[in-house]
Structures are given as C-alpha cells and as structure tokens.
Amino acid sequence: MYRLAVAVDTPQHAGLGDVLDYEAADAWAPGTLVRVPLGKRETLGVVWQADDDAPDASAADGSPVVLKAVIEALGSLPPLPPAWCALVSFTARYYQRALGEVALSVLPPELRKLDDAGLLKRLRKLDKALGLLPPPAPKRKRKSAAAEVAQAAEIATELAVEPHDTPTTAAEAPQRPPLTPEQDTVLASLTADFNAAQPACHLLHGVTGSGKTEVYLRAAEHALSIGRQALVLVPEINLTPQLEQRFAERFPGRKLVSLHSGLTAAQRLQNWLAAHLGHADLVLGTRLAIFCPLPRLGLIVVDEEHDPSYKQQDGARYSARDLAVYRGRLERAPVVLGSATPSLESWQHAQTGRYRLLTMAQRVGQGVLPAVRIIDMKTQPRPPRGQEPPALAPPLLAAVKERIERGEQSLLFLNRRGFAPVLHCTACDWKSGCPHCSAWRVFHKLDRTLRCHHCGFTERVPRACPDCGNQDIQPMGRGTERLEEQMAEALPGARVARIDADTTRLKGTLEQQLAAVHAGDVDVLIGTQMVTKGHDFRRVTLVAAVNPDSALFTADFRAPERLFATLMQAGGRAGRDAEAAARSEMWVQTSVPEHPLFAALRKHDFDAFAASQLTERDMAGLPPFSHLALLRCEAREAAVAEDFLKAARDLARSLLPAEQLTDVMFYAPVPPHVAKVAGFERRQMLVEGPTRPLLQRLLAVWTPALPALRSQHKGIVRWAIDVDPLSI
Ligand code: ADP
Ligand code: ZN
Ligand code: ZN
C-alpha cells in the first residue's frame, strides 16, 4: 500500500492542515484527482504528494496509524500538471487560505459530481465533439501503479494530439490589417521575448483605440505558430462574446474555448477539459480562467489590467492579474498586461524596470482622443426653490441636441442604477433606509420597489410616509432610470436607450441592446460602467459623465486613480470613427473642477496623473510603496467586532520579535464604507508593511493563530484576511 497526501476542502483555515493522508494500492502521481472519504462524506481531492517509500505509516510514538483508503482515482484524466499545483500552492500561501480550499474551488464544480466512469463518458463526448479520434477502449480494472500511470499517460497523449488546422479557403482567410508603426514595434519586442530564457512581463500602455486587441491577436498568432496555447483574460463576462468573435474570426481553424461563471456547469467542464488536454489553442476567460491547466501555455494576456474585477472579493481573495504575472514566470510564458490607464502598481513596476513598458500613444487611423470639457456645477444657474437641478447643464444639453441633429450618438454615463438612490418625506424627513443595512434603499420606478443593493431587501413603495402618513414622498438624487425618463422629456423625438444591470438581466438582452447602438437605432445611450468598457462604438461623438463626484468622496486612497481610469475609459468610447473624430467631446459635470485629476484628464495625460499620484502615495507610505493586508470581521454588535480586531492586533505583536515589527503599522479598527449589511456590523483593520516578505512573514504566523482567537470572541460570525486589498 502507498501513502498519498491528498488536498481536500475541509473547513480548516490556512496551513497544510487540509492535506490529509490516505492509503492506496497504487502510487498515483501528484495532480491526480481522487475520490476520498472525509468524515461521513465522500469528496473530491487532489493528490499532492505520493510517498512510495513510506508504505507503513506510523505515528511519532511508533504506533501504526490506520489510514482511510482512497475510494477511487479519476485515472482517466491526466494528472494536473506540476505548474498547476505550484500556482495553487502559491495562491494559498500568499492569500492566506487553505490549500485544499483553493485547489478545489478553482476546479470546475462539475468534477465533484463525477466518478471515473462518468468522467470517461465526458471525455468521449468531448472527443466526438472535436471529431479527433475514436473513443478510447473501455478501461479494464487496474493492476499496478505503473500500469495505471502508463495508461493515464497513454490516454493523455492520445487525447492531446495537436489539433490539425482545417484548411481555410481563400474566402475564409482572415483579414489581417497591416500593423501601425506602433503596433509593429510593440509586436517585434513581444515576439522576440518568446525566445528568451525567462520571458518578461510587459505592460502595454496604449491609449483607447490604439489597437491593443490587434496586438493581442498577433501575439496569440505567434504563440500558436510555435505550437503553444494562449490565455487571454478580460475583466467582465460581458466582454467575452465580442472578444471571442474577434478571435474566432481571426483563427478559423483553431479550437477556442471560453471560461467564465456564465457558462453552464457542463459547458465549463467541457471547455476546461479541452484546455487541460491541450485541445484548445486559445482560452478566453474572466479571472477564474487564470487557474486553467494548460499543458502548452505560451502566452498570457490580461486586458484592462487595472480593472478591479480581477480581484476576487470572497473566499481566496486573489488577484488574477498578479497571479498571471506569477504564472508567466513559473511557466516561462510572456505576459502582456494591457491598459490605457495602468494600475499604479503595474506602472511603478514599469518605471523601475521590473516590467517592460510598451507604449502606443496614437489612435489607429485618423482617430483622435475627444476634447475634454469640464463643467463647473457650482456656477450653473440655481433651480427654483424646492426643485432639483436638471440632469444636464444647459450647455451640455445643447451639445447633445446638436449630436441628434447631425445623426450622431451621445453616451451619458451615470454609475448608479435605479430611479433614485433614496426616497424622502417632505414633511418629516423620513428616508428610505434599509432596516438591515447602513444604506438607503434605492427606488426602482418600473416595478415600484424599494431595493437594498447591499442585502437585496425589497419592498413595494409605500403609498404614504411610513412615519407620518404624508402622501408627498419624493425621489432624491438620480439614477439611470430617472435620467432616461428626464432625457426622453428634454429631448422629444430622440431615441433614448438605457443599458445597466437592470435592463440586461435576461440572457441575450445585452447583445441585442448593443447591436441596436451599433446599428444606429439609438440617439442617446444612458448607461452605467457596463457601457464604458471595451466597446468599439463607431457613431458616438459625445460622452458625458453626468455625476462622477460621488466616486471621489470616499475614504479609499484609490478613489482618484479609479475615477481617472473610469473617465478615460468612458471618454475612449468617443471619436473612434476617423471622420467624426475631430468633433468628438467628453463632458464632465463636477463641483470640484479644481481637483488635479480633471486637469490631467483634459490633457489625456496619464503619465502626469500617475506621477502626481505616485508622489502622494510615496509620501503617505501607501501602495505601491508599502504593502497592505486587511483583517475584516462581522458581528451583531460593533463593539464585539472591534474587540476582536484589537485582540488580533495584540496577538500579532506577540508573535514576532518587536524589532521585526517596528516598521509594521496596525491602523485602528474602522467601519468600512457600508458599516452594516444584512444585520451584521462590519469592522476592518488595516496592516501595513514596508515590504512584501515582511508582511508575508507576519501573516504566515498570524493567520493560523486567528481561529483560536475567534473562538474566544463568541459574537464573531465571519472574519477574513484580504491580502493586497483593492477597496479599503
Ligand atoms: P483598443 O483595444 O486599444 O482600445 P482596438 O483594438 O479596439 O483598440 O482598436 C480600435 C479599432 O482600430 C478597432 O476597430 C480595430 O479593428 C482597429 N484597428 C486596430 N489595429 C488596426 C490596424 N493596424 N489597421 C486598421 N485598423 C486597426
Ligand atoms: Zn413623513
Ligand atoms: Zn440592506
């Protein structure tokens, strides 16, 4: 018998406590999926280590240990490659989560339901779908580990035949535009890197419309031409269909799969299998795709690398962007991080030479960036008493009308869905608060509901004020629903459309709505952040940020960086058509026009903005000049949460010698932006270290000690460590 160390998903927190020993008749290779008993359940695990030399397990005192036996190995599947295991180990260690939890959470959920026979069926189905080879012969009962491993290897090679190019006829041959000089330079640098002993991480800083996607396509083409696979990450599911289409058109003979949470469980498994077995040449996906095993990985692209969606916000709070960089180094694959507004972390690495900076400063063709106009809302005429100011300042409204007359499109960006963020009683000052959260409930007019966007609590709008019975309850402020209504009134005859999470709930509706915009069936498009990313709208000549200020008034030190990126990206939707580019405009309504970010925005000067932000961060000792971890917790009572955090701080100080901690700063526990959600008080404590290794050394001893501390603090319902937190 052999002893196998198997990673399983136990409720244990961090450390290697969740790699359990089992015995098996065969020495299954590390990376093999196995079904094992765990308590009263049967569960999926991943062999982490196979110990041929220690067939007889014994405890420290010499007494024999009785190991439970592996129930079944999913031997039809080639083991997950060592690089996958290494990436998962790193993720668990760095983000302070249990190894088994990470390993199991990044595998397609469907795998948990399958035994080996079921898996074999799926593999045959996949073969049939691909039309590659006759199904493998039915498997006989296995004898020895050696035979087993040989068989697995055989299946792996059988399944992993190189997909043959389907010959493309002349008509089908993809159109490749000649590269611009900037694209040419960037690609030469990238392709040269494929031969490097240790390929670099490249930061592609290209303005919106500079043709970054074409660079990704050509880099992928190069990877494919040398027999490698390419992995392309995008921040949002919404952006996968259009990217998928562009890649599919460019690589008609190649197998392309997508991986994101919008797929059915069966589809996700099938695509994952195609990637793992080497059938798929191209994998496009959202952050979870970073864990997709790829035996021939040759390129990783992270599009819009600055986007906060790359950070997972629960469980293992990993950054797929940062893991892409790690994985590239691990598997010796070039990495391309692309953005018009890189994260300051990546930008700083490019300045110090850790990343290689590639720049594309020009729009393709005759495209130019839109002229930016900042409207000072403080100087706009005041509305009559008791009335709210109009959504658009008069000069902006006039500019929109001009566009309509010329048959051009305007995009009005307002990052707040619903009709109004709060309802208000004019008699007694009642407001539509959520009883379970420290937040207002948003008024949705279409179905006349008050909805909490934090806990989901939804009620019909009351006919009268619940406190005083007054019938005059009024919306305060403006969401996209209301803006749509007001624009329809202000612009009679105009075709006004709205795209946000509420209008796109049904599958396929987003595509339909975008198609209508592209077809020119819309004059004024109102939308949340959803419409500001990635889309190549050709007819838009005016983009307006209706009310961006609220994004600035938070305690988060990243607020200006994020708003700048959002506005640059929104502005990037205008002026993509060469003919109309010269009269394209980006309007911003703000009551703090003196904020330096608007001056940089006006000049489209990312470099200057980044430089000023980095100077501030350096002086304040904030990332990227320091490293952060956030301990969050939730309790029924705020005092309980605060006590836990203070005790955790004292514990941390007792774990490392004081001289090692002199440069580590523990901030006071504070409530986050929304302090109470679904009845639980949230508190958080920031820990700042001057270097990553020092912070990691602290976390490595601190996190494992926290479960015991929690058991002394009875009221704590949840706690979590967030390493490199994005929103604080
Ligand atoms: P980005 O991702 O940098 O915002 P895109 O890749 O969307 O830019 O490119 C903007 C537009 O320019 C797209 O319509 C694209 O098809 C076109 N384009 C890109 N590269 C070229 C090129 N070399 N020649 C002609 N058109 C190009
Ligand atoms: Zn009232
Ligand atoms: Zn709520």
UniProtKB/TrEMBL annotation:
Its cofactor is Zn(2+). It catalyses: Couples ATP hydrolysis with the unwinding of duplex DNA by translocating in the 3'-5' direction; ATP + H2O = ADP + phosphate + H(+). Residues 193-360 form the Helicase ATP-binding domain. Zn(2+) 1 binds at residues 425, 428, 465, 468. Its EC number is 5.6.2.4. InterPro entries: DEAD/DEAH_box_helicase_dom, Helicase_ATP-bd, Helicase_C-like, P-loop_NTPase, PriA, PriA_3primeBD, PriA_3primeBD_sf, PriA_C. The keyword Phosphoprotein does not apply. One of its GO terms (molecular function) is hydrolase activity. Initiates the restart of stalled replication forks, which reloads the replicative helicase on sites other than the origin of replication. Recognizes and binds to abandoned replication forks and remodels them to uncover a helicase loading site. Promotes assembly of the primosome at these replication forks. PANTHER family: PRIMOSOMAL PROTEIN N. Belongs to the helicase family. PriA subfamily. This is Replication restart protein PriA. The lineage of its organism: Bacteria, Pseudomonadati, Pseudomonadota, Betaproteobacteria, Burkholderiales.
